[in-house]
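Progress against Task 2.4 (sequence-to-structure conversion) is shown through the following example record, which the project officer requested during the mid-term review.
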Amino acid sequence: MPDAEILAVGSELLGTQRLDTNSLYLTGKLNVLGVEVVQKCVVGDDRARLANEIAAALKRTEIVILSGGLGPTEDDVTRDAVAAALGRTQYQNADALAAIEERFKRLNRKMAEINKRQAMVIEGAEVLPNPRGTAPGQWIRTEDGRTVMLLPGPPTELKGMFEDQVQPRLEAMLPKQCIETVFYRIAGMGESDVDALIAPVYSKYMNPVTTILAGAGDIQLHFRARCSTVDEAKGLLAEVCPQIEKLLGDRIYSNDGASLEETVGKMLCAKNRTVAVAESATGGALGARMTAVPGSSACFKGGFITYTNEMKEKLLGVSSEVLAEYTEVSEKVALEMAKGVRERTGAYYGVAITGEAGPESGSGQPVGTFYVGVADETGFAEAKRYQFPGDRARLRQLGTQWALDLLRRRIVAG
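Structure tokens generated for the chain above:
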């Protein structure tokens, strides 16, 4: 089965203001057809550099897709670069030019002379009509059987062209294959710990392919099987995945891609229970994550941002004696905050976060020290200490992640 590479063309994609979303769309479409995307690259508007990238891609990969750079201006270099990489000439295609002129006529606009550049077609290419824009695409088969596609950059044009023109060609060209994926999300473990635990299993297999992605307290595992039939792919996953699930146990919180806050929200709704939060170091970030989930009003009662000791006393009932003896960053205070927010809101669960997010410590505890407390209607209450690495933003994110995971575990237990 051929693999594919995607080259996103445009200097604007190398800056901070524009994101290449076309490659994500193309990857999804190719995967459905059983084609694995093995490399992606963003290349600026430089003819020589782009031609070199195209030539290199064609030496190692059977399908090369370029998006963008098909406009009428001098910085639209994709046609020239592909022609140079293939050693082919270009000519003005009469049908393509007529389609561009007709589009301008329908829009009651005068076509600039420069737009004729968009009708330049590489020798041997099939023109891919573009009813949504002025830039036609091109489909090229090389002498050694490789495929090059030139697609427009605007997403609506690219998507329409792929579905109308490219997908039927690929379906006719490719053997029947499919890709099936199992997607786990894991909390409470680092990337290296996850890999050390599961590598003895996944390293035995070339198919499925295993990918481990690390986030702030959130590890993602992808297992991708590529086979000629769906049943065969599912059979390979059914051989590997139960072994992985046994090793990771309850550290797997999602197998459908759902985030931790989505998972916790579903669990609360399934048990018809509610939660309220009390936050200090995270400044409302936990509540923001939970309420970002549609339908969260069914289970989320509200919360308090008690950033100072005065607010912890007044709003949550944390005793001044406990604050004086143990400081605001302590197990005792996290417990009182969790109990206090639950009692004051009538929620089934109360979750509290207190900690030192830096850059300096106000309690004497090391920066990165966090305490998370959970209390519930049965009288259960516990608090755990964590020591996180990173800057202020990362510490706050980790604090909310571990709070959600502690709540998740308590819901399962109770």
